[in-house]
Design brief:
Blueprint: E1 2-3, E2 9-10, H1 22-41, E3 54-57, E4 62-68, H2 84-92, E5 94-97, H3 106-112, E6 121-125, H4 128-132, H5 137-154, E7 159-163, H6 175-188, E8 192-194, H7 197-201, H8 215-226, E9 229-232
Parallel strand pairs: 3-9, 4-5, 4-6, 6-7, 7-8
Antiparallel strand pairs: 1-2
Helix pairs in contact: 2-8, 5-6
């Protein structure tokens, strides 16, 4: 104690050594390191060919997961076999898992879509309905990211392909903003973005509704998706 004036005393700091917490600190650091390593283990690990295409195995049946809306369902095609999903599946020799999600924007898709794991290819075709329903960009980004994360969690090695919106009017509809979000989120998860704008704008690619792709449009979409995939033997 030290004296402050006559008859008054101020307490001074206790200079005695306190028990060392080194063991607790080390335990916390170890836990943080283990968490970091666990996160690294879930990093996307798709196989990439020398030209940048995503490799799809050819020595066994391929599991293809499709999360899509009415475009993926093949609206306005003259035959179901002409839908781009069917064309892709036939080319890859794939078994398709495709929940019924017609005319539902991503704001509801994220609540009903099952994303089973163990997929070789994950194809996401969502966002077009959100343009018309004016889903706020911040909400769309969060929900689309969550959807991709769910896919990656169960299929870290899958070839992830994200299709842009079916709106090629130069961005006046707002589709370009959604496409920017889709492209960036897909790239962050080692996926490939496929721009549908050029196909939408091409003559003779839309059906009787003048909106959904016709047979030629579906063929072009399938070709664009297959163009970012490479079928070869597993390494």
């Amino acid at each position: 104690m030290r004296v402050r004036g006559r008859g008054q005393r101020w307490p001074t700091a206790d200079t005695r050594r306190q028990p060392c917490a080194t063991a607790d600190v080390r335990a916390l650091l170890l836990a943080a390191l283990l968490a970091l390593l666990a996160g690294c283990a879930s990093v996307p690990t798709p196989t990439t060919a020398a030209d940048g295409r995503l490799v799809v195995p050819s020595d066994r049946p391929v599991a293809l997961l499709v999360a899509g809306d009415s475009l993926a369902a093949g609206f306005t095609t003259t035959d179901g076999d002409r839908a781009f999903v069917r064309i892709i599946a036939t080319t890859l020799g794939a078994t398709v898992t495709m929940p019924p999600l017609r005319d539902q924007p991503l704001t509801t898709v994220d609540r009903v879509l099952d994303m089973p794991g163990g997929q070789d290819v994950v194809l996401v075709e969502l966002g077009t309905n959100d343009i018309g329903r004016r889903t706020p960009a911040i909400d769309f980004r969060a929900r689309y990211a969550a959807l991709l994360d769910r896919a990656r969690e169960g299929s870290p090695a899958a070839a992830l392909v994200c299709l842009g919106t079916w709106a090629g009017d130069g961005g006046s509809s707002g589709g370009a903003d959604y496409d920017t979000i889709i492209s960036s989120l897909c790239a962050e998860r080692a996926g490939r973005f496929v721009d549908l704008g050029p196909i939408y704008r091409a003559p003779g690619t839309r059906g009787t509704t003048d909106f959904h792709p016709d047979d030629d449009g579906h063929r072009m979409i399938a070709d664009a998706v297959l163009g970012v995939l490479d079928t070869q033997e597993d390494p």
